[in-house]
């Protein structure tokens, strides 16, 4: 594995011509760097016939930080494997892969530029009626068919081994489960939130629950996870939805992805309290967000139940009352991981535009405090919140 950054357009065009037949040989190509996330370089290459593809290249470091924070390029293999597995079960939900080159750390893939970033769609209060069902069904299908319920136990063990992602997991062990729960130098805190953060760092019950969730994150290998399923990793139109950026994938606790995703809807809920727009528009959208969270869980749990009843390879896990217990555990894990994601996105190193777009620091602090309150309630009271109706009631009461 080596790394040479494409330092100009011609190098990128030469690479594509040599490694892919996507464009015709006489095509006139233009390139544009569209790197947006923290870790990688991303480019769009277009011809003059309206055809385009995406180039993702992983440097041996975190892109936004530089060589000072080295990071394994093995993350591209992890992403490629996860994309391939997802393509087998849910082909509509991931971009098509055209070419994978582990030597140059490059993937060429379908341009999903006709889809919009879900975080931006939520900030602009777009309602997407099919989204909850699309994401719920994808999550249930992938959880089931990468766990010992949907594949042979021996294949599951091989998957766990092949999906080891120690360096990226370590980043999340720190930035999810440690930094935001202490006065860490990597944290980025609105000064108006300092007192609230200090109270949080002194809350031993909260820290105990976060440690319980972290232990599960570090040791439970139940199913292959996306590993970083925030709304910036989802792209959507009114009738289609795509999931990208699988470099944090690993076999972990099944409630982690559902929790992170749910948290990002709730972060937007908190942002809507102070984003621009009339009070009526914002309240109406907050109601849509809570309904969407409920619909997402319903779609996920129904699909998973169906699969557990009809396709379970392990008869000992088909017991109906066990399945009821299992879904309840998954719900509680989801709430707990959601609370951790909300906390880290509010006071940790990696913030979200749903809160950061609130220009006035005092108004932003209001939304951020709401986020921390919801997060604390999710982490500490997760065992007492029975379903999504109760969840919505408790959130509205804060
Ligand atoms: C170094 S901060 C890590 C975060 O950046 C990525 O965008 C992921 O969301 C990750 O959690
Ligand atoms: Mg990204
Ligand atoms: Mg990402
Ligand atoms: Mg913030």
UniProtKB/TrEMBL annotation:
Its EC number is 2.7.1.100. Belongs to the methylthioribose kinase family. It is an enzyme of class 2 (transferase). The gene is mtnK. Transmembrane segments: none annotated. This is S-methyl-5-thioribose kinase. It comes from Amphritea balenae. One of its GO terms (molecular function) is ATP binding. NCBIfam families: MTRK (TIGR01767).
